[in-house]
């Protein structure tokens, strides 16, 4: 549904200043009915990519097809087939949700009677009927976001772009928005979203492209990405410093242990192993042979955070 | 056809929002009323040289100037409302739809024009007790001229707002343009009172011709050459201004 090849964009911050490459060649291939997430820190080029695909910014180079229409040759056709929800939304404080939905549908060329009907359906689908006739400025963050989504799909697009869909929302509204996005996917919509929340990418997306410095560093399903960080990590809690030194000496020799380090601030070790399932029995046996009794053993699957760290050398800082 | 439909769509929405916050009428009326009450009475003697022998005469000269200033200034400062909508993301939400780009601009400029016409009619009516007399047909023609001025000024303002998209920078830019434009068109006092060099400078200012046309209409000289000259020139300029800002709008806002 979305195919891009070498999509590029640079900005000139000031006249005479050197151009800054915001996006340096992005290749995407998003299948129909997929939720694809661009994950990366602020300033990585996610929003610029999304804005180019939504016809809001002209790319400097590269090509893209969105919902079967060529982005550069037929931006008007692309517009008719996509929905776009900006990070800050775009509702008018003094208008009601119903008025906004009718206007939005009409801007897509829908006739008045039909637009009124679509507004009604939109309000019902996004759980807004109760506030439909109140002006937007009275809405909570979550209600406003649901209205943004309703506005984005009022013309029934086949592709929906969401820029940071849950930024600034409380946990309950967040999971509600996730539910709405999944529901849209079930109706056959293709969703491309940006996020800098790892848990959001993990929980919501079928596939993730990790974006850093204007390019996609790697992509895959959340599971695939986590597997790229080979192996698991195992934490062993020990009773005192002596036991820690002893365990360190005994376990370092084991072939299944890739590397190990002492836990900061407490007695114990963190070990990186190929597979925790086969390593844990060996670890326990070795410790027993050295007369060391572990206090607790914990297994950690790698998180997307680890993936990001491993790929970019930086932690993905949450800026909520 | 699509342009007309889309413009109507945007215009309707803008009118609705305007009706929801009626404070603008009060605010928009207060300043002109002050001028009408506190400044115009001074003019009877000041304008004696230009043939004003009564307060009514003074109002006949002053009110059209005041209305023109209102249309020019009100129009030129409307870019700020566009900036507000740009910041709120309202424009961006419209931009991803196939709605006509010119309509997004024209619908807003027409809202501004409507607001200025409502204010102008109210001011003209409020000036009647002070002795202003003007024929209905003349007044209607004057309103048409005012509408063109407002349309021109707001289109220019939208263009400027797109070129200078911050509140802090737009203010000085608009002021720099608006002040000489208003002074050189004789909105306060007729340019006829000015020294020759000033009159020559004013004749190069298209707004001067519009204001002259307004004065002729308020004096009941509908057949004066200033009237058709003012109307024609302002219509032409309004068309150029709309085309210019629409082009900018379409470029910046693909």
What is this structure, in a nutshell?
The complex is a heterodimer of chains A (320) and B (254). Chain A contains 11 helices and 14 strands. Chain A is α/β, with parallel strands linked by helices and 320 residues long.
What labels would you give this structure?
heterodimer; A: 320 residues; alpha/beta; Rossmann fold; Alpha-Beta Plaits; 2 domains; 6-stranded mixed beta sheet; 4-stranded antiparallel beta sheet; 11 helices; 37% helix; elongated; B: 254 residues; mainly alpha; globular; transmembrane helix (chain B); ABC-type transporter activity (chain B); ABC_2_transport (chain B); transport (chain B); membrane (chain B)
What is the strand arrangement across the widest sheet of chain A? 6-7-8-3-9-10
Give the DSSP E fraction of chain A (strand runs of 2 or more residues): 25-35%
Q: What low-confidence regions of chain B span 5 or more consecutive residues with pLDDT below 50? A: none
For this structure, the quaternary state is: heterodimer
Q: How would you state the average pLDDT of chain A, rounded?
A: 88
What class do helices, strands and sheet pairing of chain B give?
A: mainly alpha
The separation of the N and C termini of chain B measures: 21 Å
The CATH architecture of the largest domain in chain A can be named as 3-Layer(aba) Sandwich
Radius of gyration of chain B, in Å, reads 19 Å
What's the number of helices of chain B?
A: 12
GO biological process, one term (chain B): response to antibiotic
Subcellular location (chain B): Cell membrane; Membrane
Family (chain B): Belongs to the ABC-2 integral membrane protein family.
Organism (chain B): Kitasatospora phosalacinea
What does this protein look like?
The complex is a heterodimer of chains A (320) and B (254). The longest helix of chain A is centred in the middle third of the chain and has 16 residues, at 171-186. Chain A is of the alpha/beta class. In chain A, strands 6-7-8-3-9-10 form a 6-stranded mixed sheet, sandwiched between helices. Chain A has a 4-stranded antiparallel sheet with strand order 2-1-4-5, with helices on one face. Chain A has a 4-stranded antiparallel sheet with strand order 12-13-11-14. Chain A has helices at 46-53, 75-81, 97-107, 112-125, 141-152, 171-186, 198-204, 222-228, 241-252, 276-289, 304-312, and strands spanning 2-11, 20-30, 35-39, 61-66, 69-70, 82-85, 159-163, 190-195, 207-212, 215-220, 232-237, 257-262, 268-273, 296-300. Chain B is built from 12 helices and no strands. Chain B has 254 residues and is an all-alpha fold. The mean pLDDT of chain B is 88. The A-B interface holds A 54-58, 75-76, 79-80, 82-84, 86, 88-95, 99, 103-104, 106-109, 135, 151, 155 and B 6, 9, 13, 16-17, 20-21, 85, 88-99, 254.
């Amino acid at each position: 549904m979305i195919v891009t090849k070498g999509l590029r964009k640079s900005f000139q911050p000031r006249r005479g200043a050197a151009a800054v490459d915001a996006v340096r060649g992005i290749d995407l291939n998003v299948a129909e009915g997929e939720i694809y997430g661009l994950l990366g820190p602020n300033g990585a080029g996610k929003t610029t990519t999304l804005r180019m695909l939504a016809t809001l910014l002209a790319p400097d180079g590269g090509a893209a097809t969105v919902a079967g229409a060529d982005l550069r040759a037929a931006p008007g056709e692309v517009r008719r087939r996509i929905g776009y929800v900006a990070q800050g939304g775009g509702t008018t404080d003094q208008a009601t949700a119903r008025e906004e939905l009718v206007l939005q549908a009409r801007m897509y060329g829908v006739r008045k009677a039909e637009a009124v009907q679509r507004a009604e359906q939109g309000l019902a689908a996004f759980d807004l009927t109760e506030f439909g006739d109140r002006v937007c400025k009275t809405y909570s963050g979550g209600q406003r976001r649901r209205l943004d989504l309703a506005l984005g799909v009022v013309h029934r697009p086949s592709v929906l772009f969401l820029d940071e869909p849950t930024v600034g929302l409380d946990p309950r509204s967040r999971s509600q928005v996730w539910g709405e996005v999944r529901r849209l996917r079930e109706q056959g919509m293709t969703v491309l979203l940006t996020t800098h929340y790892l848990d959001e990418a993990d929980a919501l997306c079928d596939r993730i492209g990790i974006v850093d410095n204007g390019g996609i560093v790697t992509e895959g399903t959340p599971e695939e990405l986590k597997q790229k960080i080979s192996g698991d990590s195992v934490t062993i809690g020990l009773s005192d410093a002596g036991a820690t030194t002893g365990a360190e000496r005994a376990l370092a020799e084991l072939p299944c242990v890739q590397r190990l380090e002492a836990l900061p601030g407490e007695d114990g070790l963190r070990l990186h192993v190929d597979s925790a399932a086969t390593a844990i029995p060996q670890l326990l046996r070795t410790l027993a042979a050295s007369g060391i009794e572990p206090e607790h053993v914990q297994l950690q699957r790698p998180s997307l955070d680890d993936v990001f760290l491993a790929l970019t050398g930086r932690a993905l800082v949450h800026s909520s | 056809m699509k342009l007309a439909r889309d413009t109507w769509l945007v215009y309707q929405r803008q009118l609705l929002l305007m009706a929801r916050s009626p404070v603008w009428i009060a605010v928009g009326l207060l300043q002109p009323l002050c001028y009408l009450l506190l400044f115009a009475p001074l003019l009877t003697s000041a304008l004696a040289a230009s043939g004003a022998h009564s307060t009514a005469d003074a109002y006949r000269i002053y009110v059209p100037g005041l209305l023109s200033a209102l249309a020019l200034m009100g129009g030129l400062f409307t870019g700020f409302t566009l900036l507000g909508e740009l910041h709120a993301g309202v424009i961006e939400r419209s931009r991803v739809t196939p709605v006509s780009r010119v309509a997004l601009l024209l619908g807003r400029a027409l809202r501004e024009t409507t607001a200025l016409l409502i204010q102008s009619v109210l001011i003209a009516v409020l000036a009647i007790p002070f002795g202003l007399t003007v024929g209905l047909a003349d007044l209607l023609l004057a309103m048409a001229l005012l509408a063109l001025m407002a349309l021109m000024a707001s289109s220019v303002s939208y263009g400027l707002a797109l070129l200078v998209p911050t509140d802090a920078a737009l203010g000085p830019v608009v002021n720099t343009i608006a002040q000489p434009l208003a002074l050189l068109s004789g909105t306060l006092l007729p340019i006829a009172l000015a020294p020759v060099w000033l009159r020559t400078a004013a004749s190069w200012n298209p707004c001067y011709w519009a204001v002259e046309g307004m004065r002729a209409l308020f004096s009941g000289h509908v057949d004066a050459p200033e009237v058709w000259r003012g109307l024609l020139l302002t219509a032409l300029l309004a068309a150029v201004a709309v085309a210019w800002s629409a082009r900018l709008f379409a470029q910046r806002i693909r």
